[in-house]
Amino acid sequence: MPIINSRLVIPFLLGLTLLSLAIALSFGSTVVDWHQVFVTFRSGENTFDHTVVMELRLPRALSAFVVGGMLALAGVLMQVLLRNPLADPYVLGISGGAAVAALLAILIGWESGMISAAAAIGAMFSMALVFVLARGDGDWSSTRLLLTGVVLAAGWGAGISFILAVTPSSHLYGMLFWLMGDFNDAGPGLFRPALLFVSLIATLLVARSLNLIALGESRAEALGVHTLALRISIYVLASLLTAAAVTIAGTIGFVGLVVPHMVRLVVGTNHRLVLPSAVLLGGILLILAETAARTVLAPRMLPVGVITAFIGVPIFLYLLRAGVKRQSK
Question: Can you tell me the distance from the alpha carbon of 264 to that of 271, in angstroms, rounded to the nearest whole number?
């Protein structure tokens, strides 16, 4: 049973999204004079405060929202695909392939744009490898897919450890920060927001089928769902979302695992509501985490992935405890 009225969830989360954006633009190592920001809008004369808000904080906040939404949506899809509550966007090794390629690019000395391109190639290679190995000549079952992904992820993990072990100390800081998640000031671009929007619309169109397949493939097939085609589509879409998120922010954990559970504990299991709620909540959580990463030890920057754990763990445990109490009544 949902904890709150389902009709209020989306408006509430939309309002919370605007509030989190306002917080991200207002807080940082520098105090912003908003009058000077508005002066720039009126006169066109650039000011320091306008530069801080529009060229530094806003792009990072938008990137955080898009990445949080993609990871949360990918987490929902992975948990449906694998029918495993511990599944997250990184469970099938996609982030591992991206990380190995990105670390090699950093080791070579490539610039930021080339590092993102290398991470994208590594992620797509890992996605294709898992698909081919898991499919083989037999049944493409959830168990076989999960085992293939876990083993491949372990292999990528060994590759990451090897690269870190042989890397000169001058490159280690950048590598570790990438592995723990970080944003730059370039913003999310156009492709990633478009991918997130199209993915959300596409998944909403098959929300009924997602509800059915979450209850079991046999029941879904009996009710007319082409489960194999749906599962392959889920895998490809979740992998693309994960790859796009990793290339802009590195590997930020926790969001894709916990946000879907938080949403289901609050609104129930209907994917017509779970999918948009997860996108919004994932974006909100990562905006707040990015803001905290900039401000807690300002002017030093903290890894965003560390902050997501600090924020999400107590919230998730509270909601889980509340859900257990409701079920026991």
Answer: 9
DSSP code per residue over 179-204: HH----TT--TTHHHHHHHHHHHHHH
Three-state DSSP state, 224: coil
Give the pair of three-digit tokens for residue 197.
């929007």
Q: For residue range 70-128, what is the model confidence (pLDDT) as tens digits?
A: 999 999 999 998 888 778 888 888 889 989 998 999 888 888 778 888 988 999 899 88
Cis? peptide before 303, omega within 30° of 0: no
User: Alpha helix (H) ranges present in the chain?
Assistant: 6-26, 34-43, 48-51, 58-82, 94-108, 112-135, 142-166, 169-180, 191-205, 207-215, 217-222, 227-249, 255-267, 271-295, 304-328
250 near 179, Cβ under 8 Å? yes
Q: What is the pTM of this model?
A: 0.88
Q: For residue range 31-80, what is the model confidence (pLDDT) as tens digits?
A: 777 777 777 767 767 777 778 888 888 999 999 999 999 999 999 999 99
Q: What would the pLDDT profile of 125-155 be if each residue is shown by its tens digit?
A: 998 898 888 876 656 677 888 888 889 999 9
Q: Which domains does the chain have, with CATH numbers?
A: 6-328 (1.10.3470.10)
- Rg of the Cα trace of the chain? 20
How far is residue 78 CA from its own chain's centroid? 12
